[in-house]
Structures are given as structure tokens and as C-alpha cells.
Amino acid sequence: MNYDGIVIGGGPAGIFAAITAARQGSRVLLLERNDRLGKKLLITGKGRCNVTNNCSAQEVQQNTPRNGRFLFSALAAFPPEKTMAFFEENGCPLKTERGNRVFPVTDKAISILECLQKELRRAGVTVKTARVKQILAEAGIVTGVRTQNEVISAKWVILATGGASYPTTGSTGDGYTMAAQLGHTVVPAEGSLVPLETAGQDAQDMQGLSLRNVGVKLLNAKGKVLYKDFGELLFTHFGVSGPTVLSASCHLKGDGCRLVIDMKPALEDSKLDERIQRDLEMYKNRAMENALIDLLPRSMIPVVLRRLEIDPTMQANSLTKQKRRALVELLKGLSLEITGKRPVAEAIITSGGVKTGEIDPKTMESKKVKGLYFAGEVIDCDAYTGGFNLQIAWATAYAAGISACKNGV
Ligand SMILES: Cc1cc2nc3c(=O)[nH]c(=O)nc-3n(C[C@H](O)[C@H](O)[C@H](O)COP(=O)(O)OP(=O)(O)OC[C@H]3O[C@@H](n4cnc5c(N)ncnc54)[C@H](O)[C@@H]3O)c2cc1C
Q1: Is 149's pLDDT higher than 80?
Q2: Which of 1, 25, 115, 322 falls 20 to 30 Å from 98 in CA-CA distance?
């Protein structure tokens, strides 16, 4: 069997690029190293798959802190509304939730994958299990690929091997090696949307505690605010995680950063002070460790008292005004020193990848090797949570699929 083109990687970007190219009339071979497609797709959105964000192309760019501008043309040609239309028209109804996050109405990622697989079959894409080792090129033009046991010729190749996070899903960074072999610059991979490690014992003492509706600020060593958010945060055995922390991680720069949590963002200092005074009056004969139970989650009380050097057994009515003020200050700004990110393997997204300056942003074609295209997370672009990363996969895959065909049907 002769193929016009080969797509390497059966994740969302690879599958969608293959469908797009095949619908244009190309004979397409999709090679996936796992014995099934879309292993990572199935765990997206906690198994529900936040497939895109119901917003404009411009808003997707604004939510892509790393190389968002590179995506201008791809998103203009394939914005979220086209993603939604694709799934709806092909038998997978969607719904929009808080923050414009779009999910399949079934609340199951498998519905998205099944829809894509049906379209792969309908478009006539050949799918094979094989791990590609090398992309072959002669005189700067793609000629095919080498897998572990054969050489397959093609006029074009789309590299869609994903990043280096969650490697058990198959995304182990193979694409970086293959792109580098062909002369591409690969920006070193690190985690983005990744939990953060903190100094000391405090986070560990509160592990398992999930806070809702808190204010979160990430500050650099000079005290400059790098990121500000409101929402959920989770304490873990190594530090902090949860949606606000994952988003903050995209902005972490340099040593000495701190995460500052406002436990009571709805209350000004004076109101919080009044509230604390009421609690202390109500529980005046209790020990301090039992007097804050209405104000704070139980596992946080020992941490707060330790920080303020308040004896937990001290009676509530003995608390000095000065210590009470310090309590207000602490609850409005519980500061944790960040010591680093968790490893890239634990990150939702890989930051880094094939340098965008070496890719034509309209066609996703390599500026170094003719007939080589890129799609999805293998490119050095990454966005916040909210369906934006999958939208990048769909849009870049569409651009690559359309232009690869033009190159050689
Ligand atoms: C836990 C988790 C939850 C997430 N939730 C969301 C969400 O709800 N919404 C959202 O927008 N984004 C989410 N993401 C991010 C999203 O999953 C990725 O952005 C997306 O999967 C990238 O698609 P891709 O096709 O580029 O790469 P991948 O999905 O990583 O697919 C790459 C494929 O290439 C294959 N491959 C790799 N090397 C080779 C090789 N040498 N030969 C053949 N095949 C190879 C891999 O096995 C893999 O199947 C989540 C990520 C994680 C980890």
C-alpha cells in the first residue's frame, strides 16, 4: 500500500490531522505506538474531556501564555466554534459549563474518542500500531519514516507525538528527538500546569485539605505579583496543587517565589477582625485549638497557631490584641515558599518543544525540512486549563492536515 502521508502519534492532534488530510483526498497512514488511540485523551478533564472552550479565537490566544501569537492563523482558520461544530455534526453532542468549558453531554471522554475513531474510519485512514524511530529526509525533503521494523515511504509527515508529561500514556518526548535529528531546535521540556513544591512542613501537615473560594497570588523574590487567581487549592504531601496552583505554575520564574493565600477574600481586614472577635467571645473558655473551628478547617488550625507562636492550649480569652491582629494578617496572606515544580511527568502540559520560530504558523510546515509538519503539544505552545490546550491541538492539526495535502495528494 502506498501512502501520500504519514501522521505520527494517535492523540487528539494526530487523529484530527489524519482525518483532515484524508477528507481532502489523501491516502493517510496513522502510526501510534500504543495498541489503542487517544490514551491521554481518555483521562482529560478528569475523564470527562474538556474538549474546547466556547470562546473566540482571540480569547484562546489570550489564554495561551506561551507563544499564543504563533497560533493566530491556525485559530482564525479553526476556532472553537468549528471544533464544536465538528463534534456536534458527527454525532457527539456537547454542552458548555462554567468558564465556557465545553464537554460531551455524556460527561465521558470516550464519547469524543469514539467520534474521532468513527471519522477516521469514514475518511479511510489506515491505522497501525508502530513506534516511529526516525523521520527520513533527503536533500531537505521528507521521504518517509523508519519504525522499529520497517521503512515506510511518504511525501509528507505530520509529527504529533505530544509532549513529555504523563509518559505512561505514550507521550515520552520521542518527537523532540526526531525533530532535533532533522535540525530543529527543541526548547527544553518542563512542566506547565503542574503542582508546586513548598518549603517546610506546613503543606504536609495540611495534606488532603482542599480550599474553595480562596484568593491566590504568586509573587517573585522582589514581591512583584506574577499571577493572581481565585478558586480552589489543594494541600499535598509535597506542597500545593489544584486549579489555581496549576495555572499559577505557568508563571513561575526564578528562585524565591512565594504563593500567598487569602483565606477570606470576601472580608476586608476590619470585617475579618470583627468576625474573629465574635468567635473568640463565643468560645472564650475554650483552648485556642478549639476556638477557631468555625473560622478555619481543622487541619489548618495547628499550622496557623504554630506560625503565630500561640500555645494551642491557651484559653481563647487570653489572646492579646496584637496576636489577634497577626491572625487577621495571616489569614489574609498565608505565605508558602515555593521550592520548585513537580517533575514534567506529573504536569498536565509540557512547556517547551519544537521552537515556533522554525515552523510556518499558517501551514505548520517546518521551515527546515519540506514536507514535515507539526501538530499539537510537540510544538512549544501551552495554555491554561479550560479546554484551550485541546483547542490548540485541533487548530494546529487542521492547519497541518490541510496544508500537507496541498503539498502532495
Ligand atoms: C491529566 C490530564 C488532563 C488533561 N485535561 C485536559 C482537558 O480537559 N482539556 C484540555 O484542553 N487539555 C487537557 N489536557 C491536555 C491535553 O491532554 C493535551 O494537550 C493533548 O492530549 C495534546 O494532544 P497531542 O495529540 O498533541 O498529544 P498526546 O495526546 O500526548 O498524543 C500523542 C500520541 O503520540 C503517541 N506517540 C508518541 N511517540 C510516538 C512514536 N514514536 N511513534 C508513534 N506514536 C507515538 C503517543 O503514544 C500518544 O498517543 C490534559 C492533560 C492531562 C495529562
Answers
A1: yes
A2: 115
Determine whether the shortest distance from the Cβ of 33 to ligand 1 is under 6 A.
yes
CA distances from 206 to 59, 196, 232 (A): 36, 15, 15
Which residue has a Cα nearest atom 6 of ligand 1? 44
For residues 165 and 217, membership in a common domain is answered with: no
| C-beta 239 within 6 A of ligand 1 | no
Residues 367-400: tens digit of each pLDDT: 999 999 999 999 999 999 999 999 999 999 999 9
Range of the domain at 356: 5-191+347-407
Same domain, 355 and 256: no
Do 228 and 263 contact (CB within 8 A), yes or no?
no
Mean residue pLDDT across the chain? 96
Which of 341, 363, 394 marks a domain boundary? 341
Q: Which of 171, 241, 249 to mutate to test the pocket of ligand 1 (most atoms within 8 A of CB)?
A: 171
Counting Cβ atoms within 10 Å, is residue 80 exposed (0-12), middle (13-18) or buried (19+)? buried
How many domains, in total, are found in the chain?
2
